[in-house]
Write a structure and sequence with these properties.
With about 110 residues, the chain is mostly beta strands. The chain has no helices and 10 strands.
């Protein structure tokens, strides 16, 4: 099981952008599906986006057209490009492969 470390979170204004990274301690090449999830205060953790080893992607309706998930197997890293951020995107974002990362906070101010 690879260890995952997220980075790139922070405070941004409405309409701004952030790029999250999820660095794995080992090879991700053989991991079929990886994904990003998020959990807002008082809410359940929800799926944001997934990507397969063949680069097929899937997005929650709430982020379609604004977020882009990608992976770089050579760097053992997955990314989440987030554009046109909204206050409702405020949450702790977690990456998931064979296990979970520790999360990175994203806060969008109005």
């Amino acid at each position: 099981q690879v260890q995952l470390v997220e980075s790139g979170g922070g405070l941004v204004q409405v309409g701004g952008s952030l790029r999250l990274s999820c660095a794995a301690s080992g090879s991700i090449e053989s991991i079929n599906t990886m994904g990003w999830h998020r959990q807002a205060p008082g809410k359940k953790r929800e799926l944001v986006a997934t990507i397969t080893s063949g680069n097929s992607t899937n997005y929650a309706d709430s982020v379609k057209g604004r977020f882009t998930i990608s992976r770089d197997n050579a760097k053992n890293t997955m990314y989440l490009q987030m554009n046109s951020l909204k206050p409702e995107d405020t949450a702790v974002y977690y990456c998931k492969a064979t296990g979970w990362g520790q999360g990175t906070q994203v806060s969008v101010s109005s």
